[in-house]
Amino acid sequence: MALTLYNTLAREKQVFKPIDAKNVRMYVCGPTVYDFAHIGNARPVIVFDVLFRLLRHIYGESHVTYVRNITDVEDKIIARAAERGVSIRDLTEGTAKVYQEDALALGNLPPTLEPRVTDSMPEIIAMIAKLVANKHAYVAEGHVLFDVSSDPDYGKLSRRALDEMIAGARVEVAPYKKNPMDFVLWKPSEGDMPGWDSPWGKGRPGWHIECSAMGEKHLGETFDIHGGGIDLQFPHHENEIAQSEGAHHGKPIANYWMHNGFLQVEGEKMSKSLGNFITIRELLAEKVFGGQVWHGRVLRLAMLGTHYRQPIDWTVDRLAQTKATIMEWARMLHGELSADAPDDEVMSALSDDLNSPAALAAIYGLASAARANTGDRRRLKRTLSFLGLYADERDTDFAVGHELDAAKIEGLIAARNAARRAKNFAEADRLRGEISTLGVAIEDGPGGTTWKVVS
Ligand code: AMP
Ligand code: ZN
Questions:
Q1: Which of 359, 375, 400 is the last residue of a domain?
Q2: Looking at the domain assignment, is residue 8 inside a domain?
Q3: In the prediction, which pLDDT does 395 show?
Q4: Contact 306 CB / ligand 1 (< 6 Å)
């Protein structure tokens, strides 16, 4: 089964060939931890988790290294900590913890490594020093800047020429820049701003250099896959390429570049000013979207319904349909054994540039067959577990399959009691039967009818 991936660098699907099949290496840009992650941020987390799972399946669990950084030094962090009157460390640690909990709730495996910028300062400073030595960077007024004119390949990922970039981008003009597209590698920190000693004085890194330095530190000079959202293609990833290749005498930083499309909400760009900005936490724990809370696995399945390179429209309707599917699976598969391997058709759909809609179509076919056939149920369970859409802990599956259905169960019980009062015993029996198909037993007592999940 050949794995093909769409490589943004080449603008085509290519057969994936790892540098070392014993250690397949992937880097994905992680969050800047100044605030809770929104549901758009969940998209790369889920998409690249599916790829991580697929690579582990193909090459073996211990032969894949997945690095997703945590950006804990950034001007937005400094501003937010000051606004809230908390220390930078409390803000970044608290936000990173919520991020990790959210990612787990969405059914993602933890990456192999989650390096923090604050733990990577020697490597960042060393890489900047190399760029200065290689004449790809220059020092000006306490800043170190990358000199884009030193790199004839600059623009190869986004395929833009330098003059177009200058016209199109909101470039920060600064008197110390030789060229408006030159970007900051190091900047001075005054007073109580977070800062580290360096050959250029006390300062802190620019945003782009951290990913180049952490990639090199944990994955080597050249690794296999680099991922992130489409918005990062320019300038962030373009700059990562310029820095790493400038520091490593032209050796490529990554062989395959992958970008997920954007998420919008009910047909509109998500933004605080439109009032449609939703965090993962809110979806999981507060009734702010469609008036209900949503289980993490519902959010995950909803995300995988659209191919990762397409834009996705996040709607209440989409979640409601997805919830019905997740609940049906949870009920059907509860207590069932699991097959040894996931379904072949699903795996080959995923191997075609992570075609999750085709994979889900195959899963829906399997689910129809599974209603009648134990073998298919086992295969379905194994396939869903593989995708992070079914957890093996009994309790969570109970919760998804039954607890969320409480309103429906209560409604059926009320209808049955009404039928009994009207002496329509045939209807009351039919309703009791319907309730039992939900995996619930009812008991009539002096205090009314109670119900419990049958294990
Ligand atoms: P940020 O914290 O803004 O750097 O974003 C973290 C990750 O989420 C990056 O990979 C972004 O490309 C991605 N991202 C941000 N907003 C969206 C969105 N609306 N849809 C999909 N991905 C997004
Ligand atoms: Zn990055």
A1: 400
A2: no
A3: 45
A4: no
Q: Answer yes or no: do 240 and 129 share one domain.
A: yes
Cα of 17 from ligand 2 centre, angstroms: 23
Element (H or E) spanning 441, and its range?
strand 440-445
Which residue from 77, 231, 238, 259 has its CB within 8 A of the most atoms of ligand 1, so it is best to mutate? 231
Q: Locate the ligand 1 atom nearest the alpha carbon of residue 38 and give its number.
A: 16
The mean predicted confidence, pLDDT, of the chain is 92
With respect to residue 345, please indicate whether it lies within any of the assigned structural domains.
Answer: yes
DSSP assignment of 318-379, as one string? HHHHHHHHHHHHHHHHTT----SS--HHHHHHHHBT--HHHHHHHHHHHHHHHTT-HHHHHH
For residue 236 and ligand 1, the question of a CB distance below 6 A is answered with: no
Q: Are residues 342 and 421 in the same domain?
A: no
Choice from 26, 34, 36, 43 to test ligand 1 binding pocket (greatest atom count within 8 A of CB): 43
Supply the pTM of this predicted model: 0.88
Helix (H) or strand (E) holding 102, with range, is helix 88-105
Ligand 1 and 270: CB distance under 6 A: yes
Q: From the alpha carbon of 236, which atom of ligand 1 is closest? A: 4
Same domain, yes or no: 23 and 161: yes
What's the pLDDT tens digit per position in 295-326?
999 999 999 999 999 999 999 999 999 999 99
User: Tens of pLDDT along 207-259?
Assistant: 999 999 999 999 999 999 999 999 999 999 999 999 999 999 999 999 999 99
Cα(30) to centroid(ligand 1), Å: 9
At which residue do the structure tokens 């593989």 appear? 386
**φ and ψ at residue 358, rounded to 5 degrees:** -70, -35
Residue bearing the CA closest to ligand 1, atom 2: 31
Helix (H) or strand (E) holding 93: helix 88-105
* Cβ count within 10 A of residue 357: 14
Pick the ligand that lies closest to the CA of residue 233. Answer: 1
Instruction: Give the residue whose CA is nearest to atom 17 of ligand 1.
Output: 40
Ligand 1 pocket, residue 262 CB under 6 Å = yes
For the chain, how long is the longest CA-to-CA vector?
91
- Alpha carbon 245 to chain centroid, angstroms: 27
Is residue 23 situated within a structural domain? yes
Range of the domain at 241: 16-260
CA distance 145 to 200: 11
Task: Name the closest-CA residue to atom 11, ligand 1.
Answer: 229
Pick the closest to residue 211 from 197, 226, 198, 196 (CA basis): 226
* The last residue of a domain, from among 363, 382, 400: 400
The model's confidence at residue 418, banded by pLDDT at 50, 70 and 90, is: very high
